[in-house]
Design brief:
Radius of gyration: 40 Å
Number of strands: 0
Keywords: Coiled coil
Pfam family, one: DUF3102
Shape: elongated
Largest sheet: none
Organism: Dehalobacter restrictus (strain DSM 9455 / PER-K23)
Protein name: Preprotein translocase SecA
Length: about 290
Amino acid sequence: MDNPITERTPLVIAAEIKMITYQTKKILLTSAIEIGRHLQEAKAMLKHGEWIKWLEESVNYSRRTASRLIKLYEEYGPSFPEGSDSSNGTPVSHLTYIQALLLLGLPAEEREEFITHNDVGSMTKQELQQALKDRDQANQAKEQALQENQLLKKGLETIDSTISELKKEHAKAASRPTNPENVNAEAQSANNASSAGNDPSATTAPFTHNLKTERNSDAYIKYVEKCDACCKTIADTFFDLTTALTNLAHIDPNLKEEKRKGANQLIEYMAETIKMWPPPKKPLRVNSGYSAG
């Protein structure tokens, strides 16, 4: 039984033209790779300074064209059998000449995965250019996110370190012995605190700084300036803290919450301390059993 003859229609003819065009583009790539192999072989034989002259006189190629063909051979040669236009079934072997040129910008170790993932073989030149552009933008965004993550980690480590140092200073100050003449006053303060019972207004007095008394009548000026400078530093640092927490919320919400709680504890401690700072001075306790000799 004879095979039926396919009816010749414009649709069938268009499909045949597309197939011939595709095969021609593949043959062009295979031929370009083979030319690149020959060019590399000739370049290795020529003495220094003879390469450009040989290209112009022997094959009528520019240096740029020759370099591009050699690059095609170096990057794609292993995927194409030497001296043959048949494919070996790898993703690279299904590329056209233009597609192979556009993909030269990708690292060799990423190229095959990109070809498979994006079905490059069926893409037009414009579609491939857009896919490469999207890839570059995604990589840039990823790199930026990694850099921001590193900055956040560094900032959070600084916050953790600051909190730890403040806790250490608090512990040291709390255990620091007072001046001898104030021992009775401290004891009286402790008695008053214990007698307060469950009084919600009773709080533990924060540590003192044991500062020397200022004799200069203009000393207040430098301390006012110091207060203003410290408030600005705290405000700037708080802005950096909230910025870090905002970014961290998009990267790791659980870690953000952990750091938020730690920062909140520090802020609450600072707020409670500043409400009663500096602690009131206690009068010296007078020993009622004392009598003049």
